[in-house]
Amino acid sequence: MNKLEAFGYIAAQAARGEISFPTSVNAVLRLQLALDDPDCHVEEAIRLVLSEPQLAARTVALANTAAFGAAGVQVTNVRAAVQRIGYHRLRGLVAALLVRQFGHRIGDPLLRAKAAQLWEHSAQVAGLAQALARHVTKIDPDTALFAGIVHEVGGFYLLSRADEFPGLLEDDTENWSELCEDVVSIEVMRKLAIPADVAAAIGALRDGVLDPEPHTLLDTLLLANRYAPVASPLAAAPIMQDGGPLDGAVLDKLLAEAGETAQALGDAALV
């Protein structure tokens, strides 16, 4: 099977709804469903967080960032962390854990390196999106953080399948990977129950045009991608970090805040 046939095969599977997740992703999906249950009591939420050591560690780390009002008072346990960041904000952390679990399927070292860079990019975009939402676009920061975490989920899925098709994501001069990723992203986001407004903003990213007065989730994601210190390894060309609408002092403040959040979400090591 050549590269074009492989892209067509994967895209056709996605179009038919035949999306296959690693076992570890399915396990996190079950956690997500449990936390999304309106009858899930806060004590049960804390128990569920404690059942996933990485999620527990990330919850405490995120609660101790400036973005969540740490103000120098550090929390050291999951109960206090959940109380500080708020129950619904766990959605972003669960999404981060879920996205990184796609790395479990990847065996090839070069593909694992791409996945690690893609996670680093996603974490930086998520942190920047949250900071931009708070200080610039004035949308809901929690939604912006979540959207940044999952905005490359189609790319993660392609990387998780690329072991089956050697050379799939190399030297794609015809940009078939972008076309395939668009189709795959729609179905993966549907399977993951990504909210419609978030999915729409992510779907519009590739051809999106920044508003002169940024104020939407799409604007927030476009700016976060423009200024992210780490580029996506699947991008057709490196993202330019200059020439944007933010001045140096504002950008430095946002990057510092975003860097702290990205670190709290977890380093690039695949789980």
TrEMBL record:
PANTHER family noted in UniProt: PTHR33525, RIBONUCLEASE Y
Protein name per UniProt: HDOD domain-containing protein
Domain HDOD: 21-208
Entries under InterPro entries matching the protein: HDOD (IPR013976), RNase_Y/CdgJ (IPR052340)
